[in-house]
């Protein structure tokens, strides 16, 4: 009988086609009516009536249409094999079960069609002809039908049966989902768990077909995964249930767990990561303003499960990429970067989140070292993405993860991250052992691709990451010599890694301790052989693709020894020049000055080195080996001296006057010069150059003590380091002038400048005249003293030296006295005329006083309080010419002394009618408006008192005063820009209230005009400054335009709307600029 049944089923499959099954599915999904015209019918009733109607229509079709008989037989055959309940009092489940049966029929039919398909051999005469299409391929419209069916199955058969907190609630997805949630009858058989289990198992069975599987998992993977999580891992109160009462058996739960892991391994891994993150959920959301919480927090068992599954995704091959893609694509960046790739790459918060996830060792890992061993190679691979859009995101994530791991696990990061990155450079160090198999001339130790990738990775980690962690700095220190050699080689021709090498070297030199930085520079220059450098057998060579590679040198023939020697000398000279170019970028941090002082000290050692003792030694008792070693030391010593001399000459030529950035460096420079002079005296090697250098350095100290630099007590503590050297010079130097100057400098330093002799002043003047031989004192003060601005710690006060000639200043003093006497007479006359009863005389006097204030006349400004009193008294005058002149005078005076005058004006403007007349308060308002305009950007300093006064004025009983306050408020807000800050809400609330409720039309006009001024002043910045209140202002303007009876107010509103329209057009559609970027290669 079983054989007969199987044969019958096969015959049914052979006759049943896809079109009939899809037509049946369409029939189930066809929209229907309620059959009633009553308005009281609800959406729930409509849904239930439609489902019942479609089920009845399908059964009628099966019974009455003979063409559907084959499909009915196939459905019945599959239904008989099914082990899950299909009939139920719940219409939604009955509908779902019939849909699942038809999906199984569709799957079986498609499998049969694919098995029977036997494509013919392609015709060689027409190779361009497309191959025959498989009969189980669904058309676009058929795929849409299947997608709609799957959506109904998931909505009716999976989502309603998820417990709270598992997955996204159905009622918050769509309005239809909320209706479905309410019409599902959970009390009817079968139980909710059984329904969920049946739906998930059937959907997984349907997904076994490749075409159907892509449709199932593309949109519904998250819901199916949520259902399997609940079926397999949700804890149940089994102690309260007997075996007969249990809904799911342990075997079924085990099958659900296995199915979950199978589909997680089967689907696109970033999709799995993203859905697991959604299932895991975030922190609980607070309820605000009476609104319901959007979704419950995921239960603890689900959070633990998702964390475990996410860790398993991470530990898989290419798991890091899956996690990164899952998080970034979930943020809206798209599969390959997308249009939001730049925004995502710039979002440091997401990068920090991913970095913390990757840096944390999961519980499934045996140890942090095992985890780092598996994960770190994948993190390094993130640096090397070829896709430009995706590369920016992945490189940003890789950099942040690299730094985070180095901070949290420095030892493991050094072993599994830093060592692989720096391995190409370590391979060619002079401290490394090169295998004998590689010591063959021409052997490539580091390929072009490896070296370029190494430099780019170092740049991304160190310069872009910009975290001077000790493990990062210490790991890069040994390979600095190779990096500098590579930098020198790139300077010989065009190279894309030259700028990268320079940025890396500048970054590390700026982050190293000063002693280590100086030691590295010594190694660069060849003064310290202990610093690791490029192996003597290795050299850089241009590669075929335009890059650089490291190879073993070719053997040097006897005939090429001279050429090799020339190459070596020229190479060393170029290294020194490139070092000078590198140091030219290190002046601001003080490294160039410290290295220059070091070179000067080395120059002192060169000057005092006693070679005669070495030459006078007897070598009769020495062996040939010892003699050879001695000669080698002599040659190295000579080379060192030449390098030092070349460095000093180069630094003197290349470095600017800003090389010294603090007092300590200047004192060290003078001390080095004095030491060299003392050493020369000890060896009777005095020369003219030494004498001039000594005079210059002592003159520099005299200039500092003469007033060019404002010295502090701490600076004198540094200067006291020179006292022993100055004492030695004053006692031993043969020139009596230098002896006297050294003694006087000692006295001045010891007394902290309280006592200074004429010799110190003359030396300072002499030094300044050497720098400015034409005697341009003012230009010298502005430019020559700039080099000491940093030395004085920002407190430099360029003063005219007291050694300047008194006769030069005397004529100007006399002229000033004469000018002052005339100004005094005119000032007294103007003050008396300010109270003249004749209006023209009084107004002219006020105008004259205002002009003197504008010209900053000293005598006039000394009487500011009296002038302010005169101007304020004339404000009360009724004549326009008089009080406008007084307004101008107060405004000019307030521009010079706003701190003193502005508070009084604000108090007078804010006073009541009893103290000042409304006219006077209006005049003060005009003064305040002129002050706001005159202060410009500086008005932000007085933002608080001005805004508070104007806002209070907007509530004054006097309508004219309210309009004046609003006008002034508009002028102020127009100039505050981003400084408007938090008060933008207060200003907006005030304008809305006045524009809608004030009874005076003049005040309402002023309120609308404030908005016009605000939008006109902010222009394109309005979208940022007013982003929180822009919508409220727009509603206000529309309200005024529609309901305001006054034509002028409506005109103001129309102007404001036009300004707003222009702003938003420029914001949404910025003008296109046709530009062509031309890049010049270095």
Automatic annotation (TrEMBL):
Residues 766-827 are annotated as: Disordered. Pfam families: ARM_TANGO6, RTP1_C1, RTP1_C2, TANGO6_N. Residues 17-313 form the TANGO6 N-terminal domain. It comes from the Eukaryota. Residues 769-780, 787-796 have a biased composition (Basic and acidic residues). SUPFAM superfamilies: ARM repeat. Residues 827-938, 1030-1062 form the RNA polymerase II assembly factor Rtp1 C-terminal domain. Transmembrane segments: none annotated. Residues 314-588 form the TANGO6 HEAT repeat domain. Residues 811-822 have a biased composition (Polar residues). Gene3D superfamilies: Leucine-rich Repeat Variant. Belongs to the Tango6 family. This is Transport and golgi organization 6 homolog.
């Amino acid at each position: 009988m079983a054989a007969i049944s199987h044969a019958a089923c096969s015959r049914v499959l052979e006759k049943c086609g896809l079109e009939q099954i899809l037509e049946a599915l369409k029939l189930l999904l066809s929209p229907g009516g309620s059959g009633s015209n009553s308005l009281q019918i609800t959406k729930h009733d409509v849904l239930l009536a439609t489902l019942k109607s479609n089920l009845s229509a399908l059964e009628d079709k099966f019974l009455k249409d003979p063409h559907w008989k084959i499909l009915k037989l196939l459905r019945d055959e599959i239904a008989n094999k099914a082990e899950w309940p299909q009939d139920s009092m719940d219409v939604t489940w009955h509908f779902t079960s019939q849909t699942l049966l038809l999906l199984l029929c569709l799957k079986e039919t498609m499998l049969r069609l694919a098995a029977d398909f036997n494509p013919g051999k392609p015709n060689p005469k027409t190779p361009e002809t497309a191959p025959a299409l498989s009969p189980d391929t669904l058309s676009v419209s058929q795929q849409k039908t299947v997608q709609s069916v799957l959506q109904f199955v998931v909505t009716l058969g999976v989502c309603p049966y998820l417990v709270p907190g598992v997955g996204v609630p159905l009622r918050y997805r769509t309005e239809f989902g909320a209706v479905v949630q309410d019409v599902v009858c959970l009390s009817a058989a079968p139980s909710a768990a059984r329904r969920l289990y049946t739906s998930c198992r059937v959907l997984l069975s349907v997904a076994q077909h490749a075409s159907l599987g892509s449709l199932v998992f593309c949109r519904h993977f998250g819901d199916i995964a949520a259902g399997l999580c609940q079926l397999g891992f949700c804890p149940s109160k089994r102690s309260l249930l007997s075996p007969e009462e249990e809904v799911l058996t342990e075997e079924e739960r085990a099958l659900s767990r296995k199915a979950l892991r199978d589909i997680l391994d089967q689907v696109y891994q970033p999709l799995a990561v993203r859905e697991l993150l959604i299932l895991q959920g975030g922190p609980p959301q607070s309820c605000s303003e009476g609104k319901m919480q959007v979704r419950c927090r995921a239960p603890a068992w689900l959070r633990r499960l998702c964390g475990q599954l996410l860790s398993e995704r991470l530990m898989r091959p290419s798991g890091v990429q899956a996690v990164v893609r899952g998080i970034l694509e979930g943020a809206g960046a798209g599969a390959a970067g997308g249009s939001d790739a730049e925004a995502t790459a710039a979002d440091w918060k997401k990068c920090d989140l991913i970095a913390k996830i990757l840096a944390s060792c999961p519980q499934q890992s045996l140890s942090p070292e095992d985890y780092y061993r598996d994960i770190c190679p994948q993190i390094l691979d993130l640096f090397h993405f070829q896709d430009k859009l995706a590369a920016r995101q992945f490189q940003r994530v890789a950099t942040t993860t690299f730094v985070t791991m180095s901070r949290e696990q420095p030892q493991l990061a050094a072993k599994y991250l830093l060592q692989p990155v720096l391995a190409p450079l370590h391979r060619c160090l002079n401290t490394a052992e090169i295998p004998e198999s590689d010591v063959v001339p021409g052997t490539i130790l580091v390929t072009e691709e490896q070296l370029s990738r190494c430099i780019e990775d170092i740049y991304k980690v160190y310069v872009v990451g910009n975290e001077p962690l000790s493990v990062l700095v210490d790991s890069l220190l040994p390979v600095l010599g190779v990096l500098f050699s590579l930098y020198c080689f790139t300077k010989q021709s065009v190279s894309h890694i030259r700028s990268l090498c320079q940025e890396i070297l500048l970054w590390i030199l700026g982050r190293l301790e000063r002693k280590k930085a100086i030691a590295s520079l010594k190694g660069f220059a060849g003064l310290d052989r202990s610093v690791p450098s490029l192996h003597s057998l290795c050299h850089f060579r241009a590669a075929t693709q335009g890059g650089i590679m490291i190879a073993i040198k070719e053997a040097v023939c006897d005939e090429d020894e001279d050429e090799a020697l020339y190459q070596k000398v020229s190479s060393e000279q170029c290294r020194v020049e490139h070092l000078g170019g590198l140091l030219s970028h290190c002046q601001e941090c003080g490294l160039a000055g410290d290295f220059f002082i070091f070179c000067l000290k080395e120059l002192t050692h060169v000057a005092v080195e006693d070679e005669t003792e070495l030459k006078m030694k007897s070598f009769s008792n020495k062996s040939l080996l010892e003699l050879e070693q001695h000669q080698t030391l002599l040659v190295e010593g000579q080379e060192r001296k030449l390098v030092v001399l070349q460095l000093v000459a180069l630094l003197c030529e290349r470095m600017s006057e800003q090389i010294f950035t603090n007092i300590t460096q200047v004192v060290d420079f003078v001390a080095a010069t004095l030491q060299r002079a003392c050493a020369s005296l000890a060896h009777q090697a005095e020369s003219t150059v030494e004498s001039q250098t000594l005079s210059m350095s002592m003159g520099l100290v005299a200039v500092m003590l003469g007033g060019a630099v404002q010295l502090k007590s701490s600076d004198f503590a540094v200067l006291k380091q020179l006292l022993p050297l100055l004492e030695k010079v004053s006692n031993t130097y043969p020139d009596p002038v230098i002896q006297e100057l050294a003694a006087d400098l000692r006295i001045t330093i010891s007394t902290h400048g309280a006592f200074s002799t004429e010799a110190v002043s003359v030396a300072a003047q002499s030094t300044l005249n050497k720098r400015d031989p034409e005697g341009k004192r003012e230009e010298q003060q502005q430019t020559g003293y700039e080099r000491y601005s940093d030395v004085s710690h920002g407190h430099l006060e360029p003063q005219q030296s007291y050694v300047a000639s008194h006769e030069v200043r005397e004529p100007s003093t006399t002229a000033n006295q004469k000018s002052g006497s005339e100004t005094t007479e005119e000032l007294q006359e103007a003050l008396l005329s300010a109270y003249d009863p004749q209006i023209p005389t009084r107004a002219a006097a006020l105008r004259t006083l205002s002009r003197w204030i504008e010209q900053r006349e000293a005598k006039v400004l000394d009487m500011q309080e009296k002038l302010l009193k005169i101007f304020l008294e004339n404000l009360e005058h009724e004549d326009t010419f008089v009080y406008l002149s007084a307004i101008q005078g107060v405004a000019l005076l307030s521009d010079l002394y706003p701190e003193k005058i502005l508070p009084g004006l604000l108090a007078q403007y804010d006073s009541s009618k009893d103290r000042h007349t409304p006219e006077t308060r209006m005049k003060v308002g005009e003064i305040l408006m002129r002050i706001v305009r005159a202060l410009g950007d500086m008005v932000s300093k007085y933002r608080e008192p001005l805004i508070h006064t104007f806002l209070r004025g907007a509530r004054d009983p006097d309508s004219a005063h309210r309009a004046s306050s609003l006008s002034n408020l508009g002028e102020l807000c127009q100039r505050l820009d981003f400084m408007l800050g938090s008060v933008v809400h207060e200003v907006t609330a005030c304008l809305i209230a006045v524009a809608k409720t004030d009874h005076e039309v003049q005040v309402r006009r002023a309120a609308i005009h404030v908005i016009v001024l605000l939008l006109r002043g902010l222009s394109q910045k309005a979208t940022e400054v007013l982003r929180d209140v822009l919508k409220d202002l727009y509603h206000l303007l529309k309200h005024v335009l529609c309901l305001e009876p006054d034509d002028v107010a409506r005109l103001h509103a129309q102007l404001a709307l036009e300004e707003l329209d222009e702003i938003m057009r420029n914001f949404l559609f910025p003008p296109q600029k046709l530009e062509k970027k031309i890049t010049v290669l270095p």
